Amino acid sequence: MSNPTDEAKLWDQFRNGDNTAYETMYHRYVEELYSYGLRFAAHDPELVLDCIQDLFVYLWQRRDHLGPTGSIKYYLFKALRRRLDRRLHRPLSFAFFGALQAGHELKLSLSHEAEQVAHEWEEDHTRQLMTEIERLPSDQKEAVMLRYFEELTPQEIADVLAVSPRTVYRLLDRAVESLRNYFLLELMLFLGLQLL
């Protein structure tokens, strides 16, 4: 996660016409933007790349008219989502599957002795978690990804999704509750089998 002060400074440098700041922004966020865009248009990766390129061209051309921001990532995600929405001419449907392979990993902090067991456990449960996240409704999947993998604030997520912060909290609560219920059921079944 970038320092908000550094983000604001980089954004201001870019707005003042600093080409190095512009290139830094591009290189810092292009992979995350591409991964995010593929969640909406996995069938057309070229469209995602075109939208990212169009976005950065637009930003450069309109830099004099842009306001300040404390989170470049949030600003870019919101802008890319809007561009994809316009280009696809249909409501966006968010697909979570593959987000973990796209550079996002769940990490566990374990002792050296437990590495092998932990590795197997992590792979199995990560696979189960991805499967369960994939079963969530599209809006909940997107909120989970933006909050827990992209580390956006609930307010930033609300702006990206064009909903109220209260709706974001509700989406996250429902998603977490669904995941918690699934894993609680799995644990109860496991413990029940162990007692037999």
From TrEMBL:
RNA polymerase sigma-70 region domain residues are 25-88
Q: Name one GO biological process term.
A: DNA-templated transcription initiation
Q: Name one GO molecular function term.
A: sigma factor activity
Show the InterPro entries listed in the entry. Answer: RNA_pol_sigma-70-like, RNA_pol_sigma-70_dom, RNA_pol_sigma70_r2, RNA_pol_sigma70_r4_t2, RNA_pol_sigma_r2, RNA_pol_sigma_r3/r4-like, WH-like_DNA-bd_sf
User: What keywords would UniProt list here?
Assistant: Sigma factor, Transcription, Transcription regulation
- Identify the residues that the record assigns to the RNA polymerase sigma factor 70 region 4 type domain, covering every copy: 127-178
Family of the protein in this entry: Belongs to the sigma-70 factor family. ECF subfamily.
Q: What is the name attached to this protein's record?
A: RNA polymerase sigma factor, sigma-70 family
Which species is the source of this protein? Answer: Catalinimonas alkaloidigena
